Amino acid sequence: MLLLAALAALNAASVHAAAAGTFDVLSMNVAGLPAILNGNGESGDKTTNTAIIGQDFAKFAYDVIHVQEDFNYHATLYVNDNHTFRTATSGGVPFGSGLNTLSNFDWIDFTRVKWATCSDASEDDCLTPKGFTFMRVSVDDGVYIDFYNLHADAGTEPGDETARAANLQQVADYIDTWSIGNAVLVFGDTNSRYTRGEDGTRVFLTQNGLTDAWVQDIEGGVYPAAGAPALVCPDGVPPDADCEVVDKVLYRGNAVISLTNTGFFYDTARFLSSDLATLTDHNPVRVEFAWSLSATLRTSDLQGGPHGTWFSDLLSLPAAPKASVLTLRGGARLDSVAITLTSGASFVHGGTGGTAVSLMLAAGEAIVSGTLCWGVFDGDTRNFYAQFTTSAGHTLAAGTMTASCATMTAPAGFGVVSFVGQDGDEMDQLGFIYAKQ
Ligand SMILES: *[C@@H]1O[C@H](CO)[C@@H](O)[C@H](O)[C@H]1NC(C)=O
Description:
Layout: H1 2-11, E1 20-29, H2 46-60, E2 64-68, H3 74-80, E3 85-86, E4 100-103, E5 107-114, E6 131-140, E7 143-150, H4 158-178, E8 184-189, H5 203-206, E9 211-212, H6 213-217, E10 247-252, E11 257-266, E12 285-293, E13 297-299, E14 303-304, E15 309-312, E16 323-330, E17 334-341, E18 346-350, E19 355-360, E20 367-377, E21 380-390, E22 395-399, E23 404-409, E24 414-423, E25 427-436
Helix pairs in contact: 2-3
2-acetamido-2-deoxy-beta-D-glucopyranose (NAG) binds near residues 58, 59, 61, 82 and 84.
Protein name: Mannose-binding lectin
Organism: Mycena rosella (Pink bonnet)
Pfam families: Exo_endo_phos2, Jacalin
């Protein structure tokens, strides 16, 4: 077993993802404010209720769970749950945001962001530093989806509406910067309804191109009109999902990953006490997803650290791209990577330091693998070295090797044509885009 594990670790970087898969997600406000602040109107004490929630998380083995209001009963939740990957709490009231993720998949680049705006017009939203979280979840090798959890400002006073719209706009702007070109899932407590026009949830549709899973699956794709009567769910277990809750799941695929919503559910009946009472004042929302990879474009794992600015060449690739010239700049570390395609399109990332080296590819020659090595500079992890190999056996390298390296190989019949990652004046984080040759 140990030998097998060691072999698996050595090969891990060149393993390719399956071409398709499925996963489910759950969004649940676990009502973990201290009982003294918020009785929540549910029966049973909060410690008992939270223990049952944790046990049900384990029992139903949801792939990725986003919780909100995971404040003062957090330890009870985690001790009763068994997911392999879980975020560390940011604290109870008044220190934490109440946002956590419990997952069967690992992730990179986890970030907590505080709202720029909050309102105490109602419901004491400024009592705790609420906001949103971001992570790139790896559902398979080189198959990253950017996951956002959030808990927007509550209430319907004018101050609440303004704060909530600002919160949702903040997430939308973050997606535009940090998820350019990427598949995205936003799920959490938006505290908003499509029937309330002032709430601002539509920004995810108009600005980010996301689709609401409830509207798509239950409402036949028709967004409830702003100003229409609220489609309020009954108390207790709703008979079906034909009512609107503030807990929403929105998503988009990208050029590599096709994402399909295969079912939307309120899982309230899975989260009941022994006397069949609900455990929180929110219906837990489950969505089933299927994903499949493009026949012509793939991406590799990302190496390095989450510094600099996110970029993706996926949005600017011509059809049937083929690499013509590869240029690297390096010295003590990897300064930049650049590829010119046979179409004339060219992509350059990083800075202008170091020494440039170039390789011209012959017709029919493709870049079939790349090794990246990373290290720590100024307290931040970044790429120090890159070496690429072509189908004709030519190699090009720049920078300085370290002890932490990974070799990533194009799937059979594919070649490296450009990049995704994060850069500044050097290559902080880097992954390859492979295209069918
Ligand atoms: C968690 O526990 C459930 C049973 O409650 C089990 O089916 C599942 O495999 C466990 N998951 C892990 C990751 O151990």
